[in-house]
Amino acid sequence: MKKTVLITGASSGFGQATAKLFAARGWNVIATMRTPRDIPGTFVTRLDVEKPETIRAAIDAGLQRFGRIDAVVNNAGYGLFGVFELTPDEKVREQFEVNVFGVMNVVRAVLPHFRENKGGCIVNVSSGAGVFGLPMISLYNASKFALEGFSESLSYELGALGIRVKIVEPGGVTSTKFGERSAKEANLPPNGIRDYDTFVSAANQVFDAMRASRSAARDSTSEHVAEVIFEATNDPSDRLRYVATSDILPLVEARRRTSESEYMAFMRSSFGPKLPPVG
Ligand code: NAP
Prior knowledge:
By secondary structure, the protein is of the alpha/beta class. It is 50% helix and 12% strand. The longest helix is centred in the middle third of the chain and has 29 residues. It has a seven-stranded parallel beta sheet, sandwiched between helices. The chain has a single domain, classed as Rossmann fold (3-Layer(aba) Sandwich). NADP nicotinamide-adenine-dinucleotide phosphate (NAP) binds next to α1, α3 and α5.
């Protein structure tokens, strides 16, 4: 019997590539988005992760169409970049509404169906920013760290019910609309507080170097990330995390394989300036 996946944020980027890939591999696809646009070979329906009634309606429509849901890919999300002090509270809350509470809303809505089926798979699209902190993305970092903690804990709770939880961690992929929305949301100097200027321009040089190494990484594409999401969804093992692109491997490995003090020394040498001596 054909399996069915529901994907959030399928209007562009990873979500759209994932919808196309699952359809090409013979799955029924419920491709959800805030403003529905046709994706050939999929069933498109409206879903805004901030509006639980649209989530319920999308799940019901999908069930009516296909009879069951085997997997959910929580992909909808965006990056709020900029210096924390310069970011208004409503933007901070909006970042969590989409990247964290939005995922929880979808998980809460699908779980009764998964419990009834005694199975299912939840794939949460995190980021390298869910593994290591970088300056000027503290809010995006906070949202993806929260998503990772939520997913890890949930994997134990749901594992006992035969429901798998997976975390996919992509690095930078420029072909999606991610950069466009981040640029719109960003709160960068110059904007009244000059104290951050020196740090921001030094950090930007490091980011430029990271971007250059990323464009050299051939696997930094939406199609590749979609492949990793497909692999994670179909992996029957209890493996939790899947790093999706090679550009972030050095930082992921530094975070996971070196001691805390070595790791922090390495990051501070990249993102100085040094802390003033205490006392
Ligand atoms: P994208 O092209 O901007 O896609 C993001 C999707 O999320 C869009 O479909 C967008 O829909 C949707 N979305 C945003 N707010 C939503 C809401 N309230 N309800 C429902 N859908 C909403 O960016 P992408 O790069 O494919 O990003 C997908 C995921 O990958 C995100 O979780 C992002 O954090 C993560 N990620 C991206 C990168 C990267 O470098 N591209 C790296 C690591 C992780 P609209 O069209 O309606 O706005």
